[in-house]
Specification:
The complex is a heterodimer of chains A (246) and B (401). Chain A is built from ten helices and ten strands. Chain A has helices at 42-49, 72-78, 95-106, 112-125, 141-155, 171-186, 198-204, 222-226, 229-236, 239-245, and strands at residues 2-13, 16-27, 31-35, 57-62, 65-66, 80-82, 159-163, 190-194, 207-212, 215-220. In chain A, helix 4 packs across helix 5 and helix 5 packs parallel to helix 6 (171-186). Chain B has 401 residues and is an alpha+beta fold. Chain B has two domains: 2-78 and 136-337 and 345-384, ABC transporter involved in vitamin B12 uptake, BtuC, CATH 1.10.3470; 86-130, no CATH class. Chain B has helices at residues 5-23, 29-55, 63-80, 118-126, 137-158, 164-184, 186-189, 218-240, 242-252, 254-259, 264-290, 300-313, 318-334, 348-366, 373-380, 384-400; strands at residues 81-84, 92-96, 99-103, 133-134, 195-196, 205-207, 210-212, 292-293, 339-341, 344-346. Chain B has a four-stranded antiparallel β-sheet with strand order 2-3-1-4. Chain B has a two-stranded antiparallel ribbon with strand order 5-8. In chain B, strand 2 and strand 3 (99-103) form a beta hairpin. In chain B, helix 2 runs antiparallel to helix 11. The chains are: A alpha/beta (246), B alpha+beta (401). At the A-B interface, helix 2 and helix 3 of A face helix 9, helix 10 and helix 16 of B.
């Protein structure tokens, strides 16, 4: 079963060709790492996938539905959820209210009691249930990351994109995030993790996608990708470049 | 129990407002009633603006524009449309159900001096044989409300991509254009000469067995208070529904809300439509109460007054904004009385505005959510911090055992 199919995706900003014909498929509940140096096009790809920006050309299918021309809220309702590189919680709303927003927007709860029960279950799992009535702005950076992940659980998406979920997070909270990723994945959702923390990415992912200057230069199991000369060159630079620099 | 204190205080305040015109009997009754009616008018504007700007984060400077749309819609409707059993043969008219809808030709500011309009010319010929009926005031108010809501819908559609300062400037521009248009179209709106409106109850009204004439203060008092309560009830219902949750999410982070499935376009347009309709309804009722409207009602100072009232009351709580508006209106009026200190007369007509400005500055500097909203929040969120600490401690003990 194909969850996500990206075909020949291009994105240009003026003369800057940020995505250069990206192709990949997500087959079933895979755990995929998306890596690449800064400026590789990872966040642009995420923004195109979630409908925040429209591609210059190419198509994106979520299951049977074409989503590349939909609005972000339609993409979310179609089943693709995402977090942001910089945490974007609703700061002047309580933790519970933060979770109610996606639940009500999706209309996937039959009543307030059920919604609250589900939200409490999510908060307990993320170990922030004691903060349920606090405003999100009272939470630490790591707790806000957990809250953002919690909102995705309320969305019950088929595909989840996590943009830098481990950045600036305490090791103890990292364990909670690992458990979260496994739980969402076991529930049947495909997960794409964007991160610069290679240890986490390599230990969690079944498959790695590597972007470099808008090109998808590698797609395969982590062990295979790790030794790919193109990937090594993208991260470490080539001998020719070193000679040129010298 | 402490959580009920704001509700109890609100209930008592409401009872006070309801019985006030029945028990107050001093010589300045009409003056005090006028202050209160105007206070309710500003309270509707401040509360609806608080929903738009404080809840939804759509910082609009065009709210008085929508208020004016309501006032001018009912004003023009009552000024130009009549029903007559006979055709005039002079005006634009349309027959229906044995009657004629008369549209009076606009003749600008000369209507009562140099030239009579077509209907007055016909009425001169008819004498008392034909009874011409003006349009019902309530229908004008309803039309004004609908027009204000429609204008809010259009502006909401136009500002979808605008945020913060750009949105404020756009709405300010809208209001200024409207003011210029009303001023320029003297032939239709009578420009700065002002458009006269019939009173709220042209034939008077009988309340509790007592007849009140068209200029009595009590009927408009209860009408404006009733409109304020209706607006607050609607806003409360909206704030407690998913609408309230979504517009607050919109305020916090529009992109994040959209990524979580919120149709941000729909809720942005909806909040403009609803709040602008409320402003228009207030403008329409106020127009019939004061019986004359001019483009000066669109002065930026008027908009600033509404913003200041909402800010001092509490921009993120429409009830606080409404209470703030009523209190400030009353205080500002009562401060008009000059007094003498050490033989020096202090002219409070000017100094009251200085005090008002200082209060606004102090509020902005030290009480970002106003003076009343934090009191409501203090009681409403009572026990939250203790609950958090207790649950965290319980969690730590469980983990430790």
């Amino acid at each position: 079963m194909i969850h996500l199919k990206v075909t020949n995706l291009h994105k240009r900003f003026g003369g800057n060709h940020v995505l250069k014909g990206v192709n990949f498929e997500v087959n079933g509940p895979e755990l995929i790492g998306l890596i690449g140096p800064n400026g590789a096009g990872k966040t642009t790809l995420t923004n195109v996938l979630d409908g925040a920006i429209k591609p210059t050309s190419g198509t994106v299918y979520l299951g049977e539905e074409r989503i590349d021309q939909l609005q972000p809220y339609q993409v979310a309702r179609a089943g693709l959820g995402r977090t942001f590189q910089v945490t974007r919680s609703f700061r002047r709303m309580t933790v519970l209210e933060n979770l109610y927003v996606p639940a009500l927007a999706m209309g996937n709860t039959s009543g307030t009691a059920e919604m609250k029960e589900k939200a409490m279950d999510v908060l307990e799992f993320l170990t922030i249930d004691h903060l349920r009535n606090e405003f999100a702005q009272a939470l630490s950076g790591g707790q806000q990351k957990l809250l953002e992940l919690g909102r995705l659980l309320m969305l019950s998406p088929d595909v989840v994109i996590l943009d830098e979920p481990f950045a600036g997070v305490h090791p103890r909270l990292m364990e909670v995030i690992y458990a979260y990723i496994r739980r969402v994945n076991e529930a049947g959702a495909a997960i794409i993790i964007i991160s610069h923390q290679m240890d986490s990415i390599f230990s969690l992912s079944d498959r790695l996608l590597v972007l470099n200057f808008g090109d998808l230069i590698a797609d395969g199991p982590p062990d295979e990708v790790k030794n790919d000369p193109a990937v090594i060159e993208a991260y470490l630079g080539s001998d020719d470049e070193e000679e040129d620099a010298a | 129990m402490k959580k009920q204190i704001p509700n109890l205080a609100g209930g008592m305040f409401l009872i006070l407002l309801l019985v006030f015109p029945l028990v107050y009997s001093k010589g300045d009754y009409d003056y005090i009633m006028h202050i209160m009616i105007t206070g309710f008018f500003y309270a509707i504007l401040a509360a609806s603006w608080s929903m738009l700007s404080g809840y939804a984060g759509q910082f609009s400077f065009g709210h008085m524009g929508f208020m004016a749309i309501g006032a001018y819609t009912t004003g023009l409707f009552c000024h130009y449309f009549y029903i007559s059993p006979e055709p005039t043969g002079l005006c634009t008219e349309m027959g229906f159900f044995g009657q004629y809808l008369i549209v009076v030709n606009p003749i600008g500011v000369t209507s009562t001096t140099l030239t009579q309009d077509c209907l007055r010319q016909a009425m001169d010929v008819w004498g008392d044989t034909v009874k011409v009926t003006p349009m019902p005031v309530f229908l004008g108010i309803l039309l004004g409300t609908i027009m204000g809501g429609f204008a809010g819908f259009l502006v909401g559609m136009l500002v979808l991509r605008l945020r913060a300062a750009y949105l404020a400037l756009f709405t300010l521009g809208f209001s200024e254009i409207l003011k210029a248009t009303i001023s320029a179209e003297i032939n239709i709106t009578r420009g700065q000469a002002g458009l006269e409106l019939p009173p709220l109850y042209p034939d008077g009204i009988t309340l509790l067995g007592h007849y009140y004439g068209p200029t009595a203060k009590l009927p408009p008092y209860y009408t404006m208070l009733g409109l304020l309560l209706i607006c607050l009830l609607i806003l409360t219902w909206l704030a407690r529904s998913k609408f309230g949750l979504f517009v607050r999410a919109l305020r916090e982070d529009q992109d994040a809300a959209a990524a979580l499935g919120v149709n941000t376009v729909r809720y942005k347009v909806l909040v403009f439509t609803v709040t602008c309709a409320m402003a228009a309804a207030a403008g329409a009722v106020q127009g019939h109460y004061v019986q004359i409207i001019t483009p000066n009602m669109l002065f930026l100072l008027q908009m600033s007054l509404v913003v200041a009232m909402a800010v001092i009351g509490g921009i993120e709580n429409f009830v606080a904004a409404a209470i703030g508006a009523i209190i400030l209106q009353v205080v500002l009026e009562l401060l008009r009385n000059s007094f003498v200190i050490g033989g020096v007369e202090v002219d409070m007509t000017i100094w009251r505005l200085v005090i008002f400005g200082l209060l606004l500055m102090i509020t902005l500097r030290f009480f970002r959510n106003g003076l009343i909203a934090p009191i409501i929040a203090f009681f409403g969120r009572e026990g939250v911090a203790e609950e958090t600490v207790a649950k965290r401690s319980a969690g730590s003990q469980e983990a430790g055992s």
